[in-house]
């Protein structure tokens, strides 16, 4: 009976997972757009509606219900904006994780948007195609969706009150792998997608408990080799992450250093995998504060409390 009640609660949460999730949250959902309104670049093999595939043993995270979704055949982006006076003009695409089989759309999605909007950053939550047979480079559907989401975001920059030069990406687990793929290959041209003049390169990337970044013999995955054009990077992982393993962050950080890319690495003894932003007693819980400081360090955020009007006024004064 308890398991049935939990499943019912998760179904309700799945229906509400596109809303700002904190009572009194200083954000508003302003748009939901299809990535491919004329149809996906490749024919899909998935049938049936979207649903939450979580087992009963997976339905709690840090003592609270968690919502996942699979059978995503119509990829979308949902835009959440901060209150206008608090808007810094920065934005971030959010890629939830889930092994490219499902998406942790709440704990690594809408809850991330609550945090981003609280610090004045517009959140663009990307619901990319899952499940897929493999991932980049063997399967390019994920990178196509990521590129399209970035280009759509920049094309709507004026409407959504964001600075197109300050749009980054945040990814978790498989979503972290996708963030790195986009940061490494923003100019990738799929044979099934028309060429675009809009830039898909992120201004920064935040990579949390990533998978598939390490290659053979302790080197970085050759498909994700960073270059001098890779954006500034913020990495977080736990030493006791036995799903993705801490070597992914260590090896990727070393590759970034060798490529001359500014990078900040935070490793914690405990935290496991998939912790998102759920508060616990562990120090890793405080990574969002470290990330906010880093965003200010790389000049993606303005001074505390400086809204977009202030940035525009300052720009006019400089001219």
Your description of this structure?
- With 319 residues, the protein is α/β, with parallel strands linked by helices.
- It has a single domain, classed as Rossmann fold (3-Layer(aba) Sandwich).
- The chain has helices spanning 2-15, 106-118, 141-155, 174-184, 247-259, 287-297, 308-318, and strands at 27-34, 60-61, 64-65, 76-82, 91-95, 122-127, 167-172, 205-208, 233-238, 263-268.
- The strands form two sheets. It has an eight-stranded mixed beta sheet with strand order 1-4-6-5-7-8-9-10, with helices on both faces. Strands 2-3 form a two-stranded antiparallel ribbon.
- Helix 3 packs across helix 4 (174-184).
- It starts with a helix and ends with a helix.
Globally, the shape reads globular
Unreliable runs, pLDDT <50, ≥5 residues?
Answer: 1-16
User: Strand content of the residues, in percent?
Assistant: 15-25%
CATH superfamily: Alpha/Beta hydrolase fold, catalytic domain
The average pLDDT score comes to: 89
Q: Could you say which structural class the secondary elements and strand pairing correspond to?
A: alpha/beta
CATH topology type: Rossmann fold
**The number of domains:** 1
Oligomer: single chain
* Fraction of residues in helix: 25-40%
| Arrangement of strands in the largest sheet | 1-4-6-5-7-8-9-10
């Amino acid at each position: 009976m308890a398991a049935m009640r939990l499943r019912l609660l998760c179904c309700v949460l799945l229906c509400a997972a596109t809303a700002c999730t904190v009572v009194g949250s200083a954000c508003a959902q302003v748009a939901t757009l299809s990535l491919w309104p004329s149809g996906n670049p490749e024919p899909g093999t998935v049938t049936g509606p979207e649903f939450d595939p979580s087992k009963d043993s997976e339905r709690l995270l840090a003592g609270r219900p968690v919502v996942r979704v699979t059978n995503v055949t119509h990829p979308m982006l949902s835009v959440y904006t901060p209150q206008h006076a608090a808007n810094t003009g920065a934005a971030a695409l959010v890629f939830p994780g889930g092994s490219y089989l499902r998406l942790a759309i709440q704990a690594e999605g809408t809850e991330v948007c609550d945090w981003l909007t609280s610090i004045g950053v517009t959140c663009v939550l990307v619901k990319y195609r899952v499940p897929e047979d493999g991932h980049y480079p063997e399967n390019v559907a994920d990178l196509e969706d990521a590129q399209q989401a970035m280009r759509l975001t920049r094309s709507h920059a004026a409407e959504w009150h964001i600075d197109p030069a300050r749009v980054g990406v945040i990814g978790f687990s498989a979503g972290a792998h996708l963030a790195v793929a986009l940061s490494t290959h923003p100019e990738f041209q799929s044979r099934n997608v028309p060429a675009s003049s809009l830039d898909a390169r992120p201004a920064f990337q935040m990579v949390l408990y990533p998978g598939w970044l390490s290659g053979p013999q302790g080197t970085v995955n050759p498909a994700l080799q960073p270059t001098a054009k890779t954006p500034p990077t913020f990495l977080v992982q736990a030493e006791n992450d036995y799903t993705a393993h801490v070597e992914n962050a260590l090896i990727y950080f070393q590759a970034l250093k060798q490529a001359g890319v500014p990078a900040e690495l935070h490793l914690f003894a405990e935290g496991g995998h998939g912790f998102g932003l759920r508060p616990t007693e562990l120090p890793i819980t405080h990574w969002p504060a470290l990330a906010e400081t880093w965003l200010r360090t790389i000049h993606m955020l303005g001074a505390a409390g400086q809204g977009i009007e202030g940035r525009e006024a300052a720009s006019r004064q400089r001219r």
